[in-house]
Amino acid sequence: MSDVDKAIATQLANIEKRTGKTLQELTQIVQASGLSKHGELVSMLKSTLGMGHGDANTVVHTVRQTAGPAAPVADSEASVLDGLYTGAKSELRPIHDAVLAVLRDLGAFEAAPKKTYVSYRRKKQFCMVGPATNTRVEVGLNMKDVPATDRLEALPAGQMCQYKVRLTNATEVDAELIAWLRIAYDASGS
């Protein structure tokens, strides 16, 4: 069993304790809801059982993996990004998509949507991507011993990431940023 599988098993055991319901009971609730979209199922579990987003998301993913056909993960991921990039921020979506395309080329990882960004992780978080303003996407990077530059801003200790890069156009997802993403990605798997 991989470390990720162990972590999910532990989280599911904790969810059972917190909700007082077995995974089988939670599966029945999800299946009986009549809902089909990932986000709708997560919202339903949050509102009916008082689950946090991470727990509800894990339950839905687990149920869908064991219960047969499900919406593709890309649909779920797309709906998360649709929620982040609405209104004035919608024009920033191609920047996030360009970063995500690079991440997919690097290898396997897990996406953990948050309220204002998406955290990407392997054994630990290696980057965060999200709209910082209506005109800018920020990429937070976790990597050590990389010299800061005008573009690669070092962040104070205690932040979620050690560095940040500000992007205003998808063309800024260039070789330099890709190299930093690779460093952060590689460091997160060891």
What this model shows, in words?
The chain has 190 residues and is an alpha+beta fold. The protein has two domains: 3-71; 75-188. It is 49% helix and 14% strand. A six-stranded antiparallel β-sheet has the order 1-2-3-4-6-5. Strand 3 and strand 4 form a beta hairpin. Helix 3 (38-49) crosses helix 4 (53-66) and helix 6 crosses helix 7 (175-188). The longest helix is centred in the N-terminal third of the chain and has 17 residues, at 3-19.
Task: Provide the gyration radius in Å.
Answer: 18 Å
The strand count comes to 6
Q: What order do the SSEs take from the amino end to the carboxyl end, as H and E?
A: HHHHHHEEEEEEH
Please tally the helical runs, counting DSSP H or I stretches of 4 or more residues: 7
Strand order of the largest sheet: 1-2-3-4-6-5
What is the terminal-to-terminal distance? Answer: 17 Å
On the 0 to 100 scale, the average pLDDT is 87
Shape: globular
Total count of domains:
2
Q: Helical percent range?
A: 40-55%
Low-confidence stretches: 67-75
Please describe the biggest sheet, giving its number of strands, its sense, and whether it closes into a barrel.
6 strands, antiparallel
Which percent range describes the beta-strand content? 5-15%
Instruction: Give the helix/strand class.
Output: alpha+beta
Topology:
Layout: H1 3-19, H2 23-32, H3 38-49, H4 53-66, H5 73-84, H6 93-106, E1 110-113, E2 118-121, E3 125-131, E4 137-141, E5 153-154, E6 163-167, H7 175-188
Antiparallel strand pairs: 1-2, 2-3, 3-4, 4-6, 5-6
Helix pairs in contact: 3-4, 6-7
